[in-house]
Design a protein that fits this description.
Layout lengths: L28 H9 L3 H17 L3 H12 L2 H9 L10 H14 L12 H18 L11 H16 L7 H19 L8 H9 L3 H16 L3 H6 L5 E2 L4 H14 E3 H11 L7 H5 L2 E5 L2 E4 L2 H6 L3 H14 L1 H28 L7 E4 L14 E4 L3 E8 L5 H5 L3 H13 L1 E2 L3 E2 L2 H12 L19 E8 L9 H13 L9 E2 L3 E4 H7 L8 H11 L10 H10 L5 H19 L5
């Protein structure tokens, strides 16, 4: 196995992260802390927040990376980078920026007069901090040289997970657009669920805001942040969001702020309480906004602010329900999963229904005839002689599991939530797909189940697909791992002789959203066939993205489905604010 291709190297569209040791700088954490201690607390915080905003909003990452190197790397350092053959490498990244933000908050000096707008030496020191952070964050498995290929892949999987949140495959504007639409659809569908309790009432009792008020206020802040141009961010123009607006909106912001924002004075104490796993960044997940002065807030991280609209809502409601009665919390978790499946179904159905001529049929929640309408899978897509079975899982893994770097702990939670399930909650994910395939194609006709819309006698290939909510499931080796589990479960099962079961494909909801406009002219099963042919999931560590994202670069397609939803959402948000005195 070529281990170089598996090393966690920062943004995959840019290149490898340059580290301090590569250019001959001290690379210890102690050295980093001594540097950060010398900077002015507020100034370094705002500077790093600007850089983070630029990195997240950038439509031309390479150009903006060059501008950052020009502003913060001395000519001497740039010459060293060139001399070492590291030109084109990544110095500034979102992952290292968040890490430096966290460390700066803990140790920088509120009384210091040293800022990053002074001498070139001061600016160059910040670049050194980035190079040390890159080295500290990017670590490879220590056993690559000696262990089996299987163990290497497992260890690399957990090592690489923290990097997935910072990988950019598509335009930031597309990602933010899709995230906003997804959130709006989630909250709309959630409120339609037949629950024993009113989720809006539960949320309002905790926050003082309705779900719509909470959603639109955050959308409003996001629109302000996304309106800043690269030149504004780099030139030091004001990037603060003013919350002192009309009386109505000001009172609403006052209710929102405690849940997503913290004052700059309180930040340090909170940082010391929340210090933990180096890639977790719990501080910024909890407080993506910082109040720098009265009524002026700054967005520290757009991605984590977006998360507040989904995972933030999820945890707020769940924690409140668990206080009332655990069974209500369990009911809510199941409903959240159902919302995820419904949202995924709507995206797939839109793309498949656009096929002209019609080549596939999308069936949502197909039911068995003999089992009193028991669901076969979440979604089935039928072609002339193909059948795609999809299970959708909105599993939320614990932070210590995701970022701890321990494969055994990660696998244990994965097994419970995505691979097998439990005795109390029943089969999950991979096991559900195996059960569906066995039921539909059992060699013993008396044990075979039937779905009205599926003629199994015509099916030659079945494609099992797992759709997951978290970006980490696009990480290298993940599809290989889950497919290995799938193959083990299917081993020795006697199925109808004319049916071939293809390897398991793992997709994230972002993959589904980006795939939608590509389904109109190319059937879903053709995309799956091509990816399986190019990257054998039984052996390769690559996931579906290795096939699909190069396709996006070659064939850019207008995503009218998501654009229309986003435009309607934007219009609703604008009407909401204008009706409350903000033009």
């Amino acid at each position: 196995m070529d281990q170089q291709s598996f090393l966690p190297t920062g943004n995959v569209n840019v290149g490898e992260a340059i580290t301090a040791d590569q250019v001959g700088f001290p690379n210890s954490k102690e050295h980093l802390i001594r540097i950060l201690e010398s900077f002015n607390y507020e100034h370094v915080l705002i500077t790093l927040a600007r850089i983070n905003l630029l990195l997240q909003c950038s439509e031309d990452f390479l150009t903006d990376q060059d501008i950052l190197q020009r502003d913060f790397c001395s000519q001497c350092l740039r010459n060293q980078i060139d001399l070492k053959g590291l030109a084109g490498g990544l110095v500034f990244g979102r992952q290292s920026t968040l890490y430096l933000l966290s460390e700066s908050v803990r140790v920088s000096d509120p009384l210091s007069t040293l800022t990053l707008t002074g001498s070139s030496d001061a600016r160059n020191v910040l670049a050194r901090c980035y190079l040390i952070a890159n080295k500290f964050l990017v670590t490879a498995s220590p056993s690559l040289e000696t262990d089996s290929e299987e163990k290497q892949k497992k260890e690399l999987l957990v090592v690489l997970i923290p990097t997935m949140e910072y990988v950019i495959y598509s335009s930031p504007n597309h990602r933010i657009r899709n995230s906003m639409v997804r959130t709006a659809e989630f909250l709309r569908l959630l409120q339609k669920m037949p629950l024993e309790f009113d989720v809006n009432e539960i949320f309002t009792s905790t926050t003082g805001l309705t779900l719509q008020e909470y959603q639109y206020l955050i959308f409003g802040i996001l629109r302000v942040c996304l309106s800043f141009r690269s030149n504004d961010i780099l030139s030091g123009e004001s990037l603060f969001v003013n919350t002192q607006l009309s009386p109505t909106l000001t009172s609403l912001h006052e209710k929102l702020i405690p849940h997503i924002c913290i004052s700059i004075d309180e930040l340090r104490d909170e940082a010391k309480k929340l210090s933990g796993l180096k890639n977790e960044f719990r501080l910024w997940r909890k407080y993506p906004l910082v109040e720098v002065s009265e009524n002026r807030i700054m967005c520290m991280d757009i991605g984590f602010l977006l998360d507040k609209l989904q995972t933030g809502v999820f945890w707020t409601i769940l924690e409140q329900l668990n206080k009332i009665e655990k069974s209500k919390g369990d009911n809510f978790i199941a409903s959240w999963g159902e919302v995820f499946a419904r949202y995924t179904s709507s995206i797939l159905k839109s793309g498949i229904d656009a096929q002209n001529p019609s080549m596939e049929k999308c069936i949502i929640s197909p039911k068995y005839v003999q089992k009193e309408e028991t669901e076969c899978t979440d979604i089935a897509v039928c072609g002339d002689d193909t059948l795609i079975l999809l299970e959708c899982k909105a599993a939320v893994l614990r932070a210590e599991t995701k970022f701890g770097g321990d494969f055994d702990k990660f696998y244990a939670e994965l097994k419970e939530k995505i691979i097998i399930g439990s005795d109390t909650e029943g089969p999950k994910g991979v096991k559900q797909l195996c059960n569906a395939i066995k039921s539909l194609t059992h060699l013993d006709e008396t044990k075979r189940q039937r779905v009205k819309e599926i003629d199994i006698s015509k099916v030659k290939k079945i494609y099992p697909v797992l759709v997951l909510s978290d970006r980490i499931f696009s990480v290298l080796c993940m599809n290989w791992l889950l497919n290995s589990e799938f193959q083990a479960m299917m081993d020795g099962v006697n199925l109808m002789g004319h049916v071939k079961v293809m390897p398991l494909t793992v997709l994230t909801i972002e993959d589904i959203e980006l795939l939608e406009p590509y389904l109109g002219n190319t059937p879903f099963h053709v995309h799956l066939n091509e990816w399986i042919a190019q990257f054998n999931p039984k052996k390769s560590a690559r996931g579906f993205s290795a096939y699909f994202y190069p396709l996006i670069q070659r064939e850019s397609r207008e995503d009218s489905f998501m654009n229309e939803k986003f435009n309607r959402l934007t219009a609703d948000v604008m009407d909401y604010f204008s009706s409350r005195g903000l033009e």
